[in-house]
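A reminder from the course coordinator: this example appears on the midterm review sheet, so study it carefully.

Given structure:
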Protein backbone atom coordinates (compact mmCIF):
# COMPACT_ATOMS: atom_id res chain seq x y z
CA UNK A 1 0.00 0.00 0.00
CA UNK A 2 2.68 2.46 0.98
CA UNK A 3 4.55 1.93 -2.27
CA UNK A 4 1.35 2.93 -4.02
CA UNK A 5 1.84 6.45 -2.72
CA UNK A 6 5.13 6.75 -4.46
CA UNK A 7 4.25 5.97 -8.04
CA UNK A 8 5.67 8.61 -10.31
CA UNK A 9 2.26 9.32 -11.82
CA UNK A 10 1.29 10.55 -8.37
CA UNK A 11 4.23 12.93 -8.32
CA UNK A 12 6.62 13.69 -5.54
CA UNK A 13 5.60 13.58 -1.93
CA UNK A 14 7.25 14.74 1.26
CA UNK A 15 8.13 11.15 2.01
CA UNK A 16 9.56 10.39 -1.43
CA UNK A 17 11.71 13.54 -1.46
CA UNK A 18 12.90 12.92 2.06
CA UNK A 19 13.78 9.29 1.29
CA UNK A 20 15.57 10.24 -1.95
CA UNK A 21 17.67 12.85 -0.22
CA UNK A 22 18.37 10.53 2.68
CA UNK A 23 19.53 7.79 0.28
CA UNK A 24 21.59 10.36 -1.60
CA UNK A 25 19.64 9.55 -4.76
CA UNK A 26 19.21 13.33 -5.08
CA UNK A 27 21.00 16.13 -3.31
CA UNK A 28 19.09 18.67 -1.27
CA UNK A 29 20.48 21.28 -3.66
CA UNK A 30 19.02 19.52 -6.72
CA UNK A 31 15.64 19.23 -5.05
CA UNK A 32 15.75 22.88 -4.10
CA UNK A 33 16.76 24.02 -7.60
CA UNK A 34 13.88 22.04 -9.07
CA UNK A 35 11.38 23.71 -6.71
CA UNK A 36 12.75 27.15 -7.56
CA UNK A 37 12.53 26.35 -11.28
CA UNK A 38 8.86 25.42 -10.85
CA UNK A 39 8.22 28.69 -9.05
CA UNK A 40 9.84 30.53 -11.93
CA UNK A 41 7.76 28.82 -14.59
CA UNK A 42 4.43 28.51 -12.78
CA UNK A 43 4.17 31.35 -10.31
CA UNK A 44 3.71 34.10 -12.89
CA UNK A 45 0.36 32.37 -13.58
CA UNK A 46 -0.53 31.48 -10.00
CA UNK A 47 0.83 34.32 -7.87
CA UNK A 48 1.08 31.91 -4.96
CA UNK A 49 4.20 33.57 -3.53
CA UNK A 50 4.66 37.01 -1.99
CA UNK A 51 8.37 36.43 -1.52
CA UNK A 52 10.73 33.82 -2.94
CA UNK A 53 13.96 33.27 -1.04
CA UNK A 54 15.99 31.47 -3.71
CA UNK A 55 19.47 32.31 -2.47
CA UNK A 56 18.67 31.62 1.15
CA UNK A 57 17.07 28.29 0.19
CA UNK A 58 20.02 27.23 -1.98
CA UNK A 59 22.44 28.15 0.79
CA UNK A 60 20.53 26.02 3.29
CA UNK A 61 20.28 23.10 0.88
CA UNK A 62 24.02 23.34 0.21
CA UNK A 63 24.65 23.32 3.95
CA UNK A 64 22.59 20.12 4.28
CA UNK A 65 24.53 18.48 1.45
CA UNK A 66 27.85 19.62 2.88
CA UNK A 67 27.20 18.55 6.44
CA UNK A 68 25.10 15.57 5.45
CA UNK A 69 25.83 13.28 8.39
CA UNK A 70 24.35 15.87 10.70
CA UNK A 71 21.13 16.09 8.67
CA UNK A 72 20.59 12.62 7.23
CA UNK A 73 18.25 11.34 9.92
CA UNK A 74 16.17 14.46 10.34
CA UNK A 75 12.53 13.78 9.43
CA UNK A 76 12.21 16.35 6.63
CA UNK A 77 15.76 16.37 5.31
CA UNK A 78 15.90 18.27 2.03
CA UNK A 79 12.13 18.79 1.71
CA UNK A 80 11.24 22.13 0.08
CA UNK A 81 8.51 23.93 1.99
CA UNK A 82 6.39 27.03 1.40
CA UNK A 83 5.30 29.03 4.44
CA UNK A 84 2.21 31.22 4.60
CA UNK A 85 3.23 34.85 4.80
CA UNK A 86 1.66 35.36 8.21
CA UNK A 87 4.32 33.34 10.04
CA UNK A 88 7.45 35.13 11.11
CA UNK A 89 10.69 34.22 9.36
CA UNK A 90 13.83 35.80 10.73
CA UNK A 91 15.40 38.10 8.17
CA UNK A 92 12.69 37.39 5.58
CA UNK A 93 9.87 39.87 5.18
CA UNK A 94 6.55 38.74 6.57
CA UNK A 95 3.63 40.77 5.30
CA UNK A 96 0.36 38.99 6.16
CA UNK A 97 -0.43 40.23 2.62
CA UNK A 98 -1.04 43.69 4.06
CA UNK A 99 0.35 47.12 3.12
CA UNK A 100 0.67 47.54 6.87
CA UNK A 101 3.50 44.98 7.02
CA UNK A 102 4.74 45.26 3.43
CA UNK A 103 8.30 45.95 4.58
CA UNK A 104 8.27 44.18 7.93
CA UNK A 105 11.28 41.91 8.47
CA UNK A 106 10.88 39.94 11.71
CA UNK A 107 13.86 39.52 14.04
CA UNK A 108 12.70 36.01 14.99
CA UNK A 109 11.20 32.79 13.62
CA UNK A 110 7.78 31.37 14.40
CA UNK A 111 8.17 28.16 16.39
CA UNK A 112 6.60 26.09 13.58
CA UNK A 113 9.11 27.58 11.12
CA UNK A 114 12.01 26.96 13.48
CA UNK A 115 10.93 23.33 13.94
CA UNK A 116 10.58 22.75 10.19
CA UNK A 117 14.08 24.05 9.56
CA UNK A 118 15.52 22.05 12.44
CA UNK A 119 13.94 18.97 10.82
CA UNK A 120 15.88 19.63 7.62
CA UNK A 121 13.17 21.33 5.57
CA UNK A 122 14.22 24.07 3.14
CA UNK A 123 11.93 27.09 2.99
CA UNK A 124 11.66 28.39 -0.57
CA UNK A 125 9.27 31.27 -0.03
CA UNK A 126 6.38 32.97 1.72
CA UNK A 127 2.94 32.37 0.30
CA UNK A 128 0.23 34.83 -0.61
CA UNK A 129 -2.91 34.86 1.53
CA UNK A 130 -5.84 37.09 2.37
CA UNK A 131 -4.82 40.20 4.28
CA UNK A 132 -4.34 39.27 7.96
CA UNK A 133 -5.99 35.95 7.03
CA UNK A 134 -9.41 37.48 6.61
CA UNK A 135 -11.30 36.07 3.65
CA UNK A 136 -12.30 32.88 1.89
CA UNK A 137 -10.94 33.44 -1.60
CA UNK A 138 -7.50 35.03 -1.37
CA UNK A 139 -8.90 38.08 -3.12
CA UNK A 140 -8.26 40.23 -0.04
CA UNK A 141 -4.48 40.12 -0.46
CA UNK A 142 -3.04 43.63 -0.82
CA UNK A 143 -0.74 42.14 -3.46
CA UNK A 144 -3.42 40.66 -5.72
CA UNK A 145 -5.25 37.34 -5.83
CA UNK A 146 -3.89 33.80 -6.13
CA UNK A 147 -5.16 31.75 -9.08
CA UNK A 148 -6.41 28.18 -8.71
CA UNK A 149 -4.04 25.76 -10.50
CA UNK A 150 -7.07 23.77 -11.73
CA UNK A 151 -8.63 26.80 -13.43
CA UNK A 152 -6.76 30.08 -13.45
CA UNK A 153 -9.92 32.18 -13.54
CA UNK A 154 -11.03 30.64 -10.22
CA UNK A 155 -10.13 31.40 -6.64
CA UNK A 156 -7.89 28.88 -4.83
CA UNK A 157 -9.83 29.39 -1.61
CA UNK A 158 -8.59 31.29 1.35
CA UNK A 159 -6.93 32.32 3.30
CA UNK A 160 -3.95 29.98 2.84
CA UNK A 161 -4.59 30.02 -0.92
CA UNK A 162 -0.97 30.48 -1.91
CA UNK A 163 0.08 27.51 0.23
CA UNK A 164 -2.64 25.27 -1.24
CA UNK A 165 -1.92 26.41 -4.81
CA UNK A 166 1.82 25.81 -4.37
CA UNK A 167 1.23 22.24 -3.19
CA UNK A 168 -1.45 21.54 -5.82
CA UNK A 169 0.84 22.83 -8.58
CA UNK A 170 3.58 20.60 -7.19
CA UNK A 171 5.91 23.46 -6.53
CA UNK A 172 6.58 22.13 -3.03
CA UNK A 173 5.22 18.88 -1.55
CA UNK A 174 4.48 20.66 1.72
CA UNK A 175 3.31 24.07 2.89
CA UNK A 176 2.29 25.57 6.18
CA UNK A 177 -1.04 27.32 6.49
CA UNK A 178 -3.02 28.79 9.34
CA UNK A 179 -6.68 28.17 10.04
CA UNK A 180 -8.95 30.47 12.05
CA UNK A 181 -12.22 29.53 10.38
CA UNK A 182 -11.22 27.16 7.61
CA UNK A 183 -8.18 28.77 6.04
CA UNK A 184 -6.19 25.55 5.73
CA UNK A 185 -9.03 23.16 4.91
CA UNK A 186 -11.08 25.23 2.46
CA UNK A 187 -8.20 26.12 0.10
CA UNK A 188 -6.92 22.54 0.40
CA UNK A 189 -10.36 21.34 -0.66
CA UNK A 190 -10.67 23.78 -3.56
CA UNK A 191 -7.17 22.95 -4.81
CA UNK A 192 -7.49 19.16 -4.47
CA UNK A 193 -4.93 18.64 -1.70
CA UNK A 194 -4.91 17.60 1.96
CA UNK A 195 -5.18 20.24 4.70
CA UNK A 196 -5.11 19.60 8.44
CA UNK A 197 -6.18 21.97 11.19
CA UNK A 198 -4.80 20.38 14.34
CA UNK A 199 -6.48 20.63 17.73
CA UNK A 200 -6.26 24.13 19.22
CA UNK A 201 -3.00 24.17 21.19
CA UNK A 202 -1.39 21.25 19.33
CA UNK A 203 0.93 23.55 17.38
CA UNK A 204 2.54 26.63 18.89
CA UNK A 205 1.20 29.95 17.64
CA UNK A 206 4.39 31.77 18.62
CA UNK A 207 5.35 33.95 15.67
CA UNK A 208 2.00 33.57 13.92
CA UNK A 209 0.55 37.00 13.17
CA UNK A 210 -2.59 36.95 15.30
CA UNK A 211 -6.06 37.25 13.79
CA UNK A 212 -8.36 35.69 16.42
CA UNK A 213 -6.27 34.14 19.16
CA UNK A 214 -8.83 31.67 20.52
CA UNK A 215 -9.34 30.23 17.02
CA UNK A 216 -5.98 30.49 15.19
CA UNK A 217 -4.03 27.30 14.58
CA UNK A 218 -1.11 26.41 12.28
CA UNK A 219 -1.17 23.20 10.24
CA UNK A 220 0.19 21.39 7.18
CA UNK A 221 -1.02 21.34 3.58
CA UNK A 222 0.30 18.40 1.55
CA UNK A 223 -0.83 15.99 -1.13
CA UNK A 224 -1.13 12.93 1.08
CA UNK A 225 -2.36 12.33 4.61
CA UNK A 226 0.90 10.50 5.26
CA UNK A 227 2.82 13.68 4.37
CA UNK A 228 0.58 15.80 6.59
CA UNK A 229 1.28 13.36 9.43
CA UNK A 230 5.04 13.59 8.83
CA UNK A 231 4.81 17.38 9.03
CA UNK A 232 2.59 17.35 12.11
CA UNK A 233 5.14 15.16 13.89
CA UNK A 234 7.65 17.97 13.40
CA UNK A 235 5.60 21.06 14.24
CA UNK A 236 3.43 19.71 17.08
CA UNK A 237 4.17 19.97 20.78
CA UNK A 238 4.30 22.31 23.72
CA UNK A 239 6.25 25.55 23.44
CA UNK A 240 7.13 27.69 26.46
CA UNK A 241 6.71 30.76 24.23
CA UNK A 242 3.00 30.07 23.63
CA UNK A 243 1.06 29.66 26.87
CA UNK A 244 -1.87 28.14 24.95
CA UNK A 245 0.26 25.40 23.41
CA UNK A 246 -0.76 22.08 24.95
CA UNK A 247 1.41 19.84 27.12
CA UNK A 248 -0.19 16.74 25.51
CA UNK A 249 2.29 14.07 24.41
CA UNK A 250 2.94 14.03 20.66
CA UNK A 251 2.61 10.50 19.25
CA UNK A 252 4.16 9.45 15.94
CA UNK A 253 1.20 10.33 13.75
CA UNK A 254 2.47 8.25 10.83
CA UNK A 255 2.37 5.14 13.03
CA UNK A 256 -1.40 5.53 13.25
CA UNK A 257 -1.82 5.18 9.49
CA UNK A 258 -2.54 1.46 9.44
CA UNK A 259 -5.28 1.48 6.84
CA UNK A 260 -7.46 -0.37 9.33
CA UNK A 261 -10.69 1.46 10.06
CA UNK A 262 -12.78 -1.55 11.00
CA UNK A 263 -15.11 -0.62 13.83
CA UNK A 264 -14.59 3.12 13.42
CA UNK A 265 -17.83 5.07 13.69
CA UNK A 266 -18.33 8.08 11.44
CA UNK A 267 -21.07 10.56 12.26
CA UNK A 268 -23.04 12.06 9.39
CA UNK A 269 -25.07 15.22 10.19
CA UNK A 270 -27.55 14.64 7.36
CA UNK A 271 -29.84 17.55 8.25
CA UNK A 272 -26.93 19.92 7.79
CA UNK A 273 -26.18 18.62 4.34
CA UNK A 274 -29.69 19.01 2.95
CA UNK A 275 -29.60 22.69 2.07
CA UNK A 276 -27.17 24.96 0.31
CA UNK A 277 -24.77 22.23 -0.78
CA UNK A 278 -23.94 21.86 -4.45
CA UNK A 279 -25.37 18.52 -5.65
CA UNK A 280 -22.07 17.38 -7.08
CA UNK A 281 -20.43 18.09 -3.72
CA UNK A 282 -23.02 16.14 -1.73
CA UNK A 283 -22.86 13.26 -4.19
CA UNK A 284 -19.06 13.09 -3.83
CA UNK A 285 -19.35 13.14 -0.03
CA UNK A 286 -21.90 10.33 0.02
CA UNK A 287 -19.74 8.22 -2.29
CA UNK A 288 -16.72 8.88 -0.07
CA UNK A 289 -18.66 7.72 2.97
CA UNK A 290 -19.62 4.51 1.13
CA UNK A 291 -15.94 3.93 0.44
CA UNK A 292 -15.09 4.28 4.14
CA UNK A 293 -18.01 2.00 5.00
CA UNK A 294 -16.74 -0.63 2.58
CA UNK A 295 -13.46 -0.63 4.54
CA UNK A 296 -15.37 -1.47 7.70
CA UNK A 297 -16.33 1.90 9.16
CA UNK A 298 -19.88 2.32 10.40
CA UNK A 299 -21.91 5.37 9.37
CA UNK A 300 -24.08 6.86 12.11
CA UNK A 301 -26.59 9.71 11.96
CA UNK A 302 -25.66 12.58 14.28
CA UNK A 303 -27.41 15.80 15.18
CA UNK A 304 -25.59 19.09 15.49
CA UNK A 305 -28.60 21.25 16.34
CA UNK A 306 -26.65 24.46 16.88
CA UNK A 307 -24.57 24.19 13.73
CA UNK A 308 -26.82 26.70 12.00
CA UNK A 309 -25.49 29.41 14.32
CA UNK A 310 -21.85 28.68 13.59
CA UNK A 311 -21.41 31.42 10.97
CA UNK A 312 -22.89 34.29 13.03
CA UNK A 313 -21.08 33.12 16.17
CA UNK A 314 -17.79 32.87 14.31
CA UNK A 315 -18.09 36.29 12.69
CA UNK A 316 -18.83 37.89 16.08
CA UNK A 317 -16.06 36.14 18.03
CA UNK A 318 -13.44 36.39 15.28
CA UNK A 319 -14.04 40.06 14.57
CA UNK A 320 -14.07 40.94 18.28
CA UNK A 321 -10.70 39.26 18.77
CA UNK A 322 -9.36 40.78 15.54
CA UNK A 323 -10.29 44.30 16.58
CA UNK A 324 -8.23 43.83 19.71
CA UNK A 325 -5.28 42.04 18.02
CA UNK A 326 -5.03 44.58 15.24
CA UNK A 327 -4.95 47.56 17.60
CA UNK A 328 -1.16 47.13 17.68
CA UNK A 329 -0.79 48.42 14.11
CA UNK A 330 -0.64 52.07 15.05
CA UNK A 331 2.38 53.15 13.03
CA UNK A 332 4.51 53.54 16.15
CA UNK A 333 6.28 50.29 16.87
CA UNK A 334 6.53 48.60 13.50
CA UNK A 335 5.00 48.39 10.09
CA UNK A 336 3.62 51.12 7.89
CA UNK A 337 3.42 54.70 9.18
CA UNK A 338 1.59 57.41 7.27
CA UNK A 339 4.01 60.26 6.53
CA UNK A 340 3.33 63.43 8.54
CA UNK A 341 1.48 66.08 6.61
CA UNK A 342 0.42 63.69 3.84
CA UNK A 343 -3.05 63.63 5.31
CA UNK A 344 -5.31 62.89 2.39
CA UNK A 345 -8.49 61.88 4.12
CA UNK A 346 -9.54 58.31 3.58
CA UNK A 347 -12.56 57.93 1.29
CA UNK A 348 -15.80 58.72 3.08
CA UNK A 349 -14.18 60.57 5.98
CA UNK A 350 -14.10 64.06 4.44
CA UNK A 351 -16.86 65.26 6.71
CA UNK A 352 -15.54 63.87 9.96
CA UNK A 353 -14.38 66.06 12.82
CA UNK A 354 -12.12 68.90 11.68
CA UNK A 355 -8.48 67.93 11.87
CA UNK A 356 -7.77 70.75 14.34
CA UNK A 357 -9.43 68.53 16.91
CA UNK A 358 -6.85 65.79 16.31
CA UNK A 359 -3.40 65.88 17.79
CA UNK A 360 -0.58 65.24 15.36
CA UNK A 361 -0.27 61.80 16.95
CA UNK A 362 -3.99 61.12 16.54
CA UNK A 363 -3.80 62.10 12.90
CA UNK A 364 -0.84 59.79 12.40
CA UNK A 365 -2.73 56.86 13.97
CA UNK A 366 -5.82 57.54 11.90
CA UNK A 367 -3.97 57.99 8.63
CA UNK A 368 -1.77 54.96 9.22
CA UNK A 369 -4.77 52.74 9.81
CA UNK A 370 -6.85 54.30 7.05
CA UNK A 371 -4.16 53.66 4.49
CA UNK A 372 -2.41 50.57 5.88
CA UNK A 373 -5.47 48.30 6.11
CA UNK A 374 -7.58 47.08 3.19
CA UNK A 375 -11.39 47.24 3.12
CA UNK A 376 -12.16 43.78 4.53
CA UNK A 377 -9.80 44.27 7.47
CA UNK A 378 -11.45 47.62 8.22
CA UNK A 379 -14.88 46.01 8.03
CA UNK A 380 -13.81 43.38 10.57
CA UNK A 381 -12.23 45.92 12.93
CA UNK A 382 -15.38 48.05 12.86
CA UNK A 383 -17.68 45.08 13.38
CA UNK A 384 -15.48 43.73 16.17
CA UNK A 385 -15.22 47.08 17.91
CA UNK A 386 -18.97 47.46 17.69
CA UNK A 387 -19.77 44.07 19.23
CA UNK A 388 -17.36 44.72 22.10
CA UNK A 389 -18.63 48.22 22.85
CA UNK A 390 -20.59 49.07 25.98
CA UNK A 391 -24.28 48.47 25.38
CA UNK A 392 -23.74 45.86 22.66
CA UNK A 393 -21.29 43.54 24.40
CA UNK A 394 -23.97 41.47 26.15
CA UNK A 395 -26.24 41.28 23.16
CA UNK A 396 -23.58 40.21 20.68
CA UNK A 397 -20.21 39.15 22.05
CA UNK A 398 -21.43 37.51 25.25
CA UNK A 399 -24.33 35.85 23.44
CA UNK A 400 -21.96 34.55 20.78
CA UNK A 401 -19.71 33.04 23.45
CA UNK A 402 -22.73 31.33 25.00
CA UNK A 403 -23.82 29.86 21.69
CA UNK A 404 -20.21 28.83 21.06
CA UNK A 405 -20.52 26.65 24.17
CA UNK A 406 -23.73 25.11 22.81
CA UNK A 407 -21.97 24.26 19.55
CA UNK A 408 -19.17 22.65 21.54
CA UNK A 409 -21.71 20.62 23.53
CA UNK A 410 -23.24 19.28 20.29
CA UNK A 411 -19.86 17.91 19.32
CA UNK A 412 -19.05 16.61 22.80
CA UNK A 413 -22.33 14.76 22.79
CA UNK A 414 -21.62 13.17 19.42
CA UNK A 415 -18.17 12.10 20.60
CA UNK A 416 -19.32 10.58 23.90
CA UNK A 417 -21.68 7.99 25.35
CA UNK A 418 -22.80 4.64 24.04
CA UNK A 419 -23.41 5.98 20.52
CA UNK A 420 -20.14 7.89 20.39
CA UNK A 421 -18.62 8.48 16.98
CA UNK A 422 -14.90 8.75 16.20
CA UNK A 423 -15.25 11.44 13.55
CA UNK A 424 -17.90 13.60 11.92
CA UNK A 425 -18.03 13.86 8.14
CA UNK A 426 -19.24 16.75 5.99
CA UNK A 427 -18.08 18.66 2.95
CA UNK A 428 -15.24 21.11 3.52
CA UNK A 429 -16.80 23.67 1.20
CA UNK A 430 -20.43 23.79 0.03
CA UNK A 431 -19.29 24.45 -3.56
CA UNK A 432 -16.21 23.91 -5.69
CA UNK A 433 -14.00 26.96 -6.38
CA UNK A 434 -15.94 30.00 -7.58
CA UNK A 435 -14.76 32.54 -10.14
CA UNK A 436 -12.37 35.33 -9.18
CA UNK A 437 -14.49 38.44 -8.71
CA UNK A 438 -17.77 36.54 -8.31
CA UNK A 439 -18.33 37.33 -4.62
CA UNK A 440 -16.11 40.33 -3.92
CA UNK A 441 -19.04 42.73 -3.68
CA UNK A 442 -21.04 40.49 -1.39
CA UNK A 443 -19.27 39.88 1.94
CA UNK A 444 -22.15 37.83 3.33
CA UNK A 445 -22.02 35.44 0.38
CA UNK A 446 -18.27 35.16 0.97
CA UNK A 447 -18.77 34.40 4.69
CA UNK A 448 -21.21 31.62 3.83
CA UNK A 449 -18.38 29.69 2.15
CA UNK A 450 -17.21 28.94 5.71
CA UNK A 451 -20.39 27.22 6.87
CA UNK A 452 -18.75 23.80 7.34
CA UNK A 453 -15.34 24.86 8.55
CA UNK A 454 -15.81 27.38 11.37
CA UNK A 455 -17.18 24.91 13.93
CA UNK A 456 -13.84 23.12 14.26
CA UNK A 457 -12.27 26.44 15.26
CA UNK A 458 -15.08 27.43 17.62
CA UNK A 459 -14.75 24.04 19.33
CA UNK A 460 -10.97 23.69 18.98
CA UNK A 461 -11.36 20.22 17.47
CA UNK A 462 -8.99 18.82 14.82
CA UNK A 463 -10.31 18.59 11.26
CA UNK A 464 -8.87 17.48 7.95
CA UNK A 465 -9.88 17.99 4.34
CA UNK A 466 -9.04 15.22 1.88
CA UNK A 467 -9.68 15.16 -1.89
CA UNK A 468 -12.84 13.16 -2.68
CA UNK A 469 -13.76 13.90 -6.26
CA UNK A 470 -14.07 16.38 -9.09
CA UNK A 471 -17.05 18.34 -10.31
CA UNK A 472 -18.04 18.00 -13.99
CA UNK A 473 -16.00 21.07 -14.80
CA UNK A 474 -12.87 19.44 -13.38
CA UNK A 475 -12.72 21.31 -10.09
CA UNK A 476 -11.70 19.39 -6.95
CA UNK A 477 -14.05 18.54 -4.07
CA UNK A 478 -12.95 17.85 -0.49
CA UNK A 479 -14.31 15.65 2.29
CA UNK A 480 -13.94 17.08 5.78
CA UNK A 481 -13.56 14.86 8.83
CA UNK A 482 -13.61 16.37 12.33
CA UNK A 483 -12.12 14.34 15.16
CA UNK A 484 -11.85 14.15 18.92
CA UNK A 485 -9.71 16.66 20.78
CA UNK A 486 -6.03 15.71 20.42
CA UNK A 487 -6.95 12.61 18.42
CA UNK A 488 -5.28 13.69 15.20
CA UNK A 489 -3.94 10.12 15.05
CA UNK A 490 -7.43 8.61 14.78
CA UNK A 491 -8.56 11.33 12.41
CA UNK A 492 -5.59 10.90 10.09
CA UNK A 493 -6.00 7.11 10.15
CA UNK A 494 -9.48 7.50 8.65
CA UNK A 495 -8.38 10.07 6.08
CA UNK A 496 -5.36 7.98 5.08
CA UNK A 497 -7.45 4.82 4.76
CA UNK A 498 -9.77 6.73 2.45
CA UNK A 499 -6.83 7.96 0.39
CA UNK A 500 -5.49 4.43 -0.01
CA UNK A 501 -8.73 3.41 -1.68
CA UNK A 502 -9.06 6.41 -3.97
CA UNK A 503 -7.15 8.15 -6.71
CA UNK A 504 -8.54 11.66 -6.32
CA UNK A 505 -5.30 13.00 -4.95
CA UNK A 506 -3.21 11.72 -7.84
CA UNK A 507 -3.99 13.73 -10.98
CA UNK A 508 -2.00 16.90 -11.54
CA UNK A 509 -3.79 20.12 -12.47
CA UNK A 510 -3.67 21.31 -16.10
CA UNK A 511 -1.09 23.97 -15.32
CA UNK A 512 1.34 21.17 -14.46
CA UNK A 513 0.45 18.71 -17.21
CA UNK A 514 0.42 21.49 -19.80
N1 LIG B 1 -12.95 32.66 5.93
C1 LIG B 1 -12.78 32.88 7.34
C2 LIG B 1 -12.64 34.36 7.64
O1 LIG B 1 -12.62 35.13 6.73
C3 LIG B 1 -11.62 32.08 7.83
C4 LIG B 1 -10.31 32.75 7.81
C5 LIG B 1 -9.22 31.95 8.42
O2 LIG B 1 -9.37 30.77 8.72
N2 LIG B 1 -8.11 32.62 8.64
O3 LIG B 1 -12.59 34.75 8.76
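Designed residues:
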Amino acid sequence: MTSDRMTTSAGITVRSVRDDVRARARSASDVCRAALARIESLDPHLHAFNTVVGERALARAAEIDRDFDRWRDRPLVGVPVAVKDNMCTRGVRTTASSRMLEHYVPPYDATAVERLEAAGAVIVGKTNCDEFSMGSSNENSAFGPVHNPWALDRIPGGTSGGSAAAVAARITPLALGSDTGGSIRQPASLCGVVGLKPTYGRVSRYGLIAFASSLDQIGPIARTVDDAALALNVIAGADPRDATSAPEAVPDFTAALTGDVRGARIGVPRALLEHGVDVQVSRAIMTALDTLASRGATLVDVQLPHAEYAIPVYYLVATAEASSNLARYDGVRYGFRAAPGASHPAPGTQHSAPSTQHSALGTMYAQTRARGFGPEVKRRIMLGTYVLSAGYYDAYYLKAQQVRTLILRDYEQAFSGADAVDAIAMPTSPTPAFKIGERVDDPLQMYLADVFTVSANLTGLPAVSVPCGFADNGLPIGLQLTGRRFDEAGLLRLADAYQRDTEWWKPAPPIVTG
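The chain has 18 helices and eleven strands. The domain at 3-258+464-513 is CATH 3.90.1300.10 (Amidase signature (AS) enzymes).
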